[in-house]
Design a protein that fits this description.
Elements (H helix, E strand, L loop, with lengths): L4 E5 L3 H12 L4 E5 L16 E2 L10 H20 L8 E5 L5 H13 L6 E3 L2 H7 L7 E5 L3 E2 L2 H14 L3 E3 L6 E5 L2 E5 L4 E4 L1 E4 L5 H7 L7 E12 L10 E4 L11 E4 L5 E4 L3 E2 L13 H8 L4 H20 L1 H9 L10 E14 L10 E5 L2 E6 L8 H13 L2
Length: 399
């Protein structure tokens, strides 16, 4: 396989991690095609920067297995390259007795997933030692959950790709992919190249890229926007590390939480509202094509019937600051409305869903001839990026 030409569609952290692994292992001549004019432009550069330890994921799932490997490999990379990596720790807090049972389930999953040094806390005094301003009756504490800058990590890995002879071509949106005579032809508005294999790590565009090679339309990408509020510098001491709610097990989102960033800023979020465009980072970004495609997807009705109440709640919190404030204040009662000084950023999550309206909970990969498509890679994909690269190489590129 050493002489193979390998094309990678997508310059987010997963695509660049894959390019890095391939070039460092000498497994082929690698070219990355990224439609934007810089790397990490979408999900990679618009998330909370958390290096997840594996608290939530179903034991035995790809998410659980690759997150554990990914946390170690991201930490090692940051240490080797002198990049910021701060183990600020995470508290998942139950605010009343109704949340004790789902908290126990998170504890069970965490222990099965081997989350290091996990602790169950039922003493309010101990809770306040970790986070002095938190309110709750119990929590699980993951002291090694960390915070990083994923855009910087992506650029560092890109340097390794280029140094090892790989190519990274920006501003190259892929418009056609066709397998012909044992090769894969890839077309952009500016070039046409042939590869022996192509791997698509296209995030928000993954289903569209899959469609270029005739893959099943399902799972489709349903974009969810996550909005963050910044805390004023005067209120930053309300949170030392990360304060998370007990998530609703029916929904693949973690709820509004407090996170201290790698550069010591503190933000609240994210929310989870359906975006009106694949790259809809605010309410003004509207794509009638994307919105119509979501509304007419066979699973749309089932999804609405199952989650309409949560959807209304999330949208109202996005539009009404007090609703967002009330969600956050449950965990930190000293928070004041004026401490939330502005929406700091927003990201759009590429959430895959099936025809029956089911939101996919695990990573998903399709193989279509010589083309591999990463169909679903939501959080913790950034944490797991190097591990995902290793998985793709082992299971799809060396067979």
């Amino acid at each position: 396989m050493g002489a193979e030409r390998i094309g990678i569609v997508g310059g987010g952290i997963v695509g660049i991690a894959l390019a890095r692994e391939l070039t460092l292992r000498g497994l082929g001549e690698v070219t990355v095609l990224e439609k934007e004019h810089r790397l990490a432009e979408h999900q990679t550069g618009h998330n909370s920067g958390v290096v997840h330890a594996g608290l939530y994921y179903r034991p035995g799932s790809l998410k659980a297995r690759l997150c554990a490997i990914g946390r170690r490999t991201i930490r090692e990379l940051c240490q080797e390259r002198g990049l910021p990596y701060r183990e600020v720790g995470k508290l998942v807090v139950a605010v009343d007795e109704s949340e004790l049972e789902p908290l126990a389930e998170i504890e069970r999953r965490s222990r099965e997933n081997g989350v290091p040094d996990l602790a169950r806390i039922d003493d309010v005094g101990r809770l306040r030692e970790i986070e002095p301003h938190v309110a709750g009756i119990a929590a699980v504490h993951s002291p090694h959950t960390a915070i990083v800058d994923y855009s910087t990590i992506t650029e560092a890995m890109a340097q390794d790709v280029r140094a090892a002879g790989g190519r990274i071509l920006l501003g190259q949106e892929v418009t056609a992919i066709a397998e012909e005579h044992g090769r894969v032809r890839v077309v952009t508005p500016y070039l046409e190249e042939e590869f022996d294999r192509v791997i698509a790590c296209a995030g928000l565009q993954s289903d569209l890229v899959a469609g270029l090679v005739g893959a099943d339309p399902s799972p489709k990408i349903l974009p969810f926007r996550g909005e963050y509020w910044a805390l004023s510098p005067e209120a930053n001491d309300l949170c030392r590390g990360m304060i998370y709610p007990v998530p609703d097990p029916r929904f693949p989102f973690l709820g509004v939480h407090f996170t201290r960033g790698v550069y010591d800023d503190v933000h609240l979020g994210p929310s989870a509202v359906p975006a009106l465009a694949r790259e809809g980072y605010n309410w003004r970004r509207i794509s009638m094509r994307d919105t119509w495609a979501s509304l007419t997807w066979p699973g749309a009705g089932a999804l609405f019937r199952k989650h309409w109440y949560m959807g209304v709640d999330e949208v109202s919190a996005s539009l009404i600051k007090r609703r967002y404030f009330n969600k956050a204040r449950k965990f930190v009662p000293e928070l004041r409305m004026q401490d939330m000084v502005g929406k700091s950023t927003a990201g759009v999550r590429a959430q895959a869903w099936d025809r029956d309206g089911t939101l996919l909970d695990d990573f998903a990969v399709d193989q279509i001839g010589r083309v591999t498509v990463l169909r679903n890679a939501p959080s913790p994909a950034a944490t797991s990026s190097i591990a995902i690269a290793g998985y793709l190489i082992e299971h799809h590129l060396t067979t």
